[in-house]
Write a structure and sequence with these properties.
Helix content: 25-40%
Largest sheet: 7 strands, mixed
Distance between the termini: 14 Å
CATH topology of one domain: Rossmann fold
CATH architecture of one domain: 3-Layer(aba) Sandwich
Length: about 260
């Protein structure tokens, strides 16, 4: 039965596991309804962008029900106030030492250091290591998550930050494996993935925001990232296009970790 399903998917579905997951696994994986006890008051006067991690719950449940993974660490690139990393730490039962967050906005980085005890870095993950211009919104704006390397919108100011390659970061810090990686970098996801080089194979799963159209100086779109990850052993198990927007949220898991393939 599984072999037949694989053949049908290969012929009719360009993103293989996506439909298989939605039709044949998700119905058996009733969302457990993890209710976060996250202490939101710790964020005080700050304005975290995109909620407090709740949107990550389907991916968490997929890991728990559809994979053989045990999540022992979390990396978040483009962390904003690290509220998503905070949520993931809670639902996977981790400690602050198991969480690594990267946020190049100087003021938000300082806020993270005040709020959390995570491993926190004020670097812009990229495909080369150098001093780079980063465009930032004031910390009191409603959507500070729009700060990025590419966007230079009205009201932003430019600051110089250090960009790093994540493969070199992993080597320097003796990190053998990343269990859960989240990337939300406003148009530079391809460059971040490129910066992992051969270490992409050492990541178990990736939750990724990616553009589907070229705008705001975006140089690479989702299909290119899909090809890169597919060639490094990943399967796409969830894709959510944002209505009226040119981007999506997706979830990739190493094929060897997906139960249905085993």
């Amino acid at each position: 039965m599984v072999a037949l399903l694989k053949k049908v998917i290969k012929v009719f579905v360009p993103y293989g596991m996506l439909v298989l997951y939605r039709r044949y696994i998700k119905n058996e994986m009733k969302i457990e309804g993890v209710v976060s006890s996250l202490n939101r008051s710790k964020y005080g006067e700050y304005n975290p962008a995109g909620g407090f991690g709740d949107k990550l719950l389907p991916y968490v449940n997929y890991i728990k029900k559809g994979t053989s993974l045990t999540v022992r660490n979390v990396f978040e690139i483009g962390a904003n106030f690290a509220q998503d990393a905070d949520f993931l730490m809670e639902v996977f039962g981790l400690q602050p030492k198991d969480v690594y967050v990267f946020e190049a906005h100087p003021e938000i980085y300082a806020a993270i250091k005040k709020i959390h005890s995570f491993n926190t870095y004020d670097y812009a993950a990229f495909n080369e290591e150098k001093e780079i211009i980063f465009n930032v919104l004031p910390i009191n704006r409603a959507n500070t998550g729009n700060s990025s390397i590419l966007n230079n919108r009205e009201g932003m100011k430019q600051v110089k930050v250090k960009s790093i390659r994540m493969d070199k970061f992993m080597d320097r810090n003796r990190i053998d494996k990343i269990d859960f990686l989240k990337i939300d970098v406003e148009g530079c996801s391809y460059e971040v993935l490129e910066g992992f080089g051969n270490r992409l194979k050492d990541i178990s799963c990736i939750q990724l925001e990616a553009e589907h159209v070229f705008y705001n100086s975006v140089n690479h779109v989702f299909d290119e990232m899909y090809d890169m990850l597919k060639s490094n052993g990943f399967e796409l198990v969830d894709l959510r296009r944002n209505p009226g927007a040119g981007y999506s949220d997706s979830f990739f898991v190493q094929k060897a970790c997906i139960k249905i393939w085993q």
